[in-house]
Amino acid sequence: MNPAVPTKRTPTGRAEPGDTRTRLVMATATLLQRQGYEGTSIKQILKEAAATYGSLYHHFPQGKEELAAEALRFGAAEFTELLRQGLSSSDDPAEGVANCAHLMADSLRDSDWTDGCPVAATALEIIGRSPLIQRTSDEALREWRGLIADTLHRGGHSEVHAAALACTVLSALEGAELLSRVSSDDAPLRLAAEHLAVLTRAGL
Amino acid sequence: MNPAVPTKRTPTGRAEPGDTRTRLVMATATLLQRQGYEGTSIKQILKEAAATYGSLYHHFPQGKEELAAEALRFGAAEFTELLRQGLSSSDDPAEGVANCAHLMADSLRDSDWTDGCPVAATALEIIGRSPLIQRTSDEALREWRGLIADTLHRGGHSEVHAAALACTVLSALEGAELLSRVSSDDAPLRLAAEHLAVLTRAGL
DNA sequence: CCTCCGCTAGATCGATCGATCTAGCGGAGC
DNA sequence: GCTCCGCTAGATCGATCGATCTAGCGGAGG
């Protein structure tokens, strides 16, 4: 792993450090989020990351699939931060959940409806065809459920109830993002924010 | 359009009539649902539908994209039927909504987690890259929202409130399907059923 | 029976896919 | 200054992509 180096801007809009491996992972994360696994070619990744085949297969001997799994973990960590930020924005877990939806809506709108959940597009098309990527996606979704459940639990919900509610909260967030992106309209996410707050309060 | 002809079973599990155009559309609908647009090759479609290039480009001069749009409409109509069945299963709209989730869970479980929403996988990966397919997906989602909204409205919700709630209901269904498919577990959809019923009753 | 035409059959095209390979750069350690 | 090796550069591979093309089947109309 190389030391920190200056960063530059790329067409993906993501800041990318000089470290080649990191550039590859970040560029792949963005592209997977936007166009899924099959829709993203290695050549496009290399161009976006300003890297070459040699670098890619040096850092990821298993090729595209291995790189994609690493990129999903990277994107998932970013999304975890967004959730953490939303959930911690209020002492009221209902408001925290709603703010997650609003943060997602803001992020999507500001990025022309591209920057949402980093695993959804890839996960849906790969189910049953790449155990590695499916498992990686599953782990990300479970981490997010756990994060939401912890917040609900601390907010007064029973542990079992918090876990169940967290699952539906994440479902609604993921689904609302799909609707928002397809229609280029943040209304589904804003409505999800409102309704999830109601649901969270109703459960107490 | 040809007259009705005998059907046969294919590896997709879908009954397919002798009409070549219909076989193409049905096979494509199934494949898009399972592996998305980029993950589905024309060759695979032709094999699955027992058709050839000549037939495909005769019926769909614009090629893969035109066929995919038609297939999405076909799959969407099937899913509309599932929703209609769930929504009409009870006089209580809360139960109707919950039954939609249960029907989806049953369908997914029975098909090894493949037969869910016919547009989600394709829509997510194609956003911003195929106006035709994105618009077709959007129309399907809007139709489903309208169907749910009508039921809620008839169940006593105000028109505005019914539309808003219907949006979140569909979001939760779509998201819960994602979670269920990725984890090969129907729990997210069963939980969504329960929570959506609570939310629907809370809104009255 | 012959013609016509909607439809199907499948070879073939150039482009691009993911992957592999050899060659060579360039900083660290001696 | 020299060697060594982690890393990068990019040509090239066979396979497969979506698309186009000509050829020909076979039922309907005369």
Automatic annotation (TrEMBL), chains A, B:
| HTH tetR-type domain: residues covered | 18-78
Q: Which Gene3D superfamilies match?
A: Tetracycline Repressor, domain 2
The UniProt keywords, alphabetically, are:
DNA-binding, Transcription, Transcription regulation
Q: Which GO terms describe its molecular function?
A: DNA binding
| SUPFAM superfamilies for this protein | Homeodomain-like, Tetracyclin repressor-like, C-terminal domain
According to the entry, DNA is bound by residues in 41-60
What name goes with this protein? Answer: TetR family transcriptional regulator
In its UniProt entry, the species of origin is given as Streptomyces typhae
